[in-house]
Amino acid sequence: MIEFTFWDILRNLLLAARWTVLLSLAAFVGGALVGLVVLFFRIAKNKWSRRIASGYIALFQGTPLLMQLFLMFFGLPMLGLRIEPWTAAALGLTFFASAYLAEIWRSGVAALPQGQWDAGASLGLHYLQELRLIILPQAFSITRAPTVGFLVQLIKSTALTSIIGFEELVRASNAINNATFEPFKVYGLVALIFFVMCFPLTQYARTLEQRAAAH
Amino acid sequence: MGYSLDFGWLAGAVGAIARGAATTILLIVVTTFVGTLLSVLGAAGRRNGPLLLKRAIGVYVEVMRNTPFLVQLFFIFFGLPSLGIRLDPILAAMLAMTLNMAAYTIEIVGAGLDAVPRGQTEAALALGLRPRQVFVKIVLPQALKVIYPALTSQVVIMMLESAVVSQIAVRELTYEADMLQARTFRAFETYFVVTMVYLALSMGLRRLLVSGGRQVLGAGVS
């Protein structure tokens, strides 16, 4: 039997944590892009477009992420794509993030006074220019705190991808735990690694929130 | 190659799905009551307790909020036995869910307590109420009314998060789905149906909490 020292455990966990970081980044970037599209539908003038976007958001916010990941994992092969935990994990988290980010940004758009739109229109800007130059920059700026807060939630959510077989931090820790039988130490370390990733972001979100409240 | 959906297995699976949903509901009911009680004590302790208690509650909240629920669950279920604390899966799930939810609701309840004007406490004290009466009868009801919407959202989020406890073999909705798909080989259909059950549960739970809140806390609760 191979003996695992404390440093072996920590080194292996940190190696696996790279995948947690990579997946979080991929899902955040992908979620922001898709979320932007959902946002366009959500704030469009067309009633049906708004309804579809609301339904999309309600669907992702009203069902467990684990189920969304399972549906990705078992649904993608039906579309002829190969099952790979990475694809299912990245896509599943991307759609999950897009719904939350679209809703966060929508609240930012809704918080802007109607005068901002009117001013844009009176300057002769058309709809897309208004959004790009006036509305969205302000909406992003006032929702920076909840956006960072959601990033923390997203990093924690990557833990669920271990269940569909993606080799990130939690899956690696399960394997190490099965070899060492030291769950207290292994899961304690995993919690610590997640804490080190999330806590600075939580603090940053808090600072942003206080700065926004001071204005 | 074509893949055709098949829901023929559903008729024989209704019982299992209903049993799983009942366990999920049991989990969230226990978590909601114990978690809210804990968070009222925690929020009060964080404001009025001794310094050490304030610090401890602060650390607890940060640790729980910055680590994944799945890891907390594994730590409690697999890690605690090495300290001699061995829990049933369902007890471990309830403990993990309660502790996780309390960390979020301590902050919410705390914000509610801060929102009640100081004059309310002073007026009640001037009327001769004891400090505990002031808290229970004057401050807390007003605070709960303010934070009720945030509290209901947290309950729904926790219900959705409870899908994870299937990983320590608690026989709730997701666990039953895992069993069904292993038997029927209809993974996508099974998880689709169960996802819809979750959607119905979360929408129903939200409705119930809103109308229940109106009855208990009075009008103005959304």
Automatic annotation (TrEMBL), chain A:
Gene Ontology molecular function terms on file: transmembrane transporter activity
GO biological process: amino acid transport
Spans traversing the lipid bilayer: 20-41, 53-74, 86-105, 186-205
InterPro entries hit by this protein: AA_ABC_transptr_permease_3TM, ArtM/GltK/GlnP/TcyL/YhdX-like, MetI-like, MetI-like_sf
Source superkingdom: Bacteria
Pfam family, one: BPD_transp_1
Membrane topology label: Multi-pass membrane protein
One of the record's GO cellular component terms: ATP-binding cassette (ABC) transporter complex
UniProt cross-references to Gene3D superfamilies, sorted A to Z: MetI-like
Subcellular location: Cell inner membrane; Cell membrane
Coiled-coil segments on the chain, per record: none
Domain ABC transmembrane type-1, residue spans: 17-205
Keywords assigned: Cell membrane, Membrane, Transmembrane, Transmembrane helix, Transport
Assigned protein family: Belongs to the binding-protein-dependent transport system permease family. HisMQ subfamily.
The protein's name: Amino acid ABC transporter permease
Species for this entry: Mesorhizobium waimense
Lineage: Bacteria, Pseudomonadati, Pseudomonadota, Alphaproteobacteria, Hyphomicrobiales
UniProtKB/TrEMBL annotation, chain B:
Keyword Nucleotide-binding among UniProt keywords: no
BP GO terms, sorted: amino acid transport
One Pfam family in the UniProt entry: BPD_transp_1
A single Gene Ontology CC term: ATP-binding cassette (ABC) transporter complex
Topological category with respect to the lipid bilayer: Multi-pass membrane protein
Residue intervals of the ABC transmembrane type-1 domain: 21-209
SUPFAM superfamilies: MetI-like (SSF161098)
Annotated compartments: Cell inner membrane; Cell membrane
UniProt-listed Gene3D superfamilies: MetI-like
Protein family per UniProt: Belongs to the binding-protein-dependent transport system permease family. HisMQ subfamily.
Name of the molecule in the record: Amino acid ABC transporter permease
Organism of provenance: Mesorhizobium waimense
